[in-house]
Amino acid sequence: LPEQEAFNIEYWLLEEAKLQRMPKPKGLAGRTALVTGGAGGIGRAIAARLMQEGANAVLADIDQASLDAAVADFGKLFGKDRVRGIAMDVTDEASVIAAFEETARSYGGIDIVVNNAGISSAASVEDTTLELWNRNISILATGYFLVAREGYRLMKNEGNGGSLVFIASKNGVSASAGASAYCTAKAAEIHLARCMALEGAPHGIRVNVVNPDAVLRGSKIWQGEWRQQRAASNKIGEDDLEEFYRKRSLLQRSVYPEDIAEAVYFFASDLSAKSTGNFLNVDAGNVVSFTR
Ligand code: NAD
Fold first, then answer.
1. Of 42, 66, 118, 193, which residue is least crowded by CB atoms under 10 Å?
2. Residue 70: CB within 6 Å of ligand 1?
3. Which residues of the chain fall below pLDDT 70?
């Protein structure tokens, strides 16, 4: 929309009349999105939402079997030409560079990058080995850096702007006992986004963050050790975890992968054309409730 000095009813009536006559365009038609961890719970929901709005999707993930399954599903839903799966390790610079080269070859460039690939790890500081610390930093902080840098370089060279969206965590803004390496890496992701927002602005490249709270449904990280540790530290059964997080939230609602996907669509699309360097907690009010 053009800049306006004040609300002008004639302007809005004219716009509304124009909209009524136009076929509804899809928000991301003709754009290309690369989603890391695109074969995981939240990543799949994000890719589906962006594709629903017309984007081509490149799913980049280290898990080849889940990747093949996701690409087959999306091919059936949206057409084979609109989805690619690329086996990629976010900690391996050469593999990240190759993924963006392949994306550019397949779709002519990149408009949206979603930094989402991740792991979870639960350990108190005294039990955190250097290896565990380095694994968190390398996948979550360094991995996000490598993917963001390559996406940014490609967008800047193309000169059409773009949107980078990082899936960090509520744990990146509020502290959590028993997961300090994970929390520290998530905080680093948020700060990287802010720094990149400053550098990207002159090139029309926006960088924003979505912070989920516990998303149990569909998430692979909630199937193993993390699940057991969280249940034990909250003194509840593993099957009671979803209800526990729902009740803990201010809104008394569970957060699902689709809720995260909706927030990503907002930041990926022109709906958020005037937002950069921001984060949005999709946490059913959990972060603010810590300040009560
Ligand atoms: P998930 O395990 O279902 O998906 C993560 C995906 O990342 C997997 O498909 C995995 O194969 C991939 N991956 C892991 N290491 C990789 C690597 N080195 N290179 C490339 N791909 C790799 O988990 P999810 O819940 O969908 O998590 C997605 C993101 O959301 C993560 O960054 C996570 O930290 C964040 N998050 C999740 C929750 C939650 O409760 N599920 C809460 C806050 C933040």
1. 66
2. no
3. 1-5, 23-25, 290-292
Active site annotation includes 256: no
| Predicted-assembly ipTM surpassing the 0.95 threshold | yes
Q: Is the CB of 136 under 6 A from ligand 1?
A: no
Atom nearest to 39 CA in ligand 1: 9
Q: Cβ(91) to ligand 1 under 6 A?
A: yes
Contact by Cβ (8 Å): 222, 239: no
Instruction: Tell me the whole-structure pTM to 2 decimals.
Output: 0.94
Burial class (CB in 10 A: 0-12, 13-18, 19+), 105: exposed
Q: Residue 23 has what pLDDT?
A: 63
CA 118 to CA 151: how far, in whole Å? 18
Mapped onto helix, strand or coil, the DSSP state of residue 254 is coil
Residue 218 contacts residue 195 (beta carbons within 8 Å): no
How much distance in Å is there from the Cα of 43 to the middle of ligand 1? 7
Q: How far is CA 156 from CA 116, 148, 193, in A?
A: 21, 12, 16
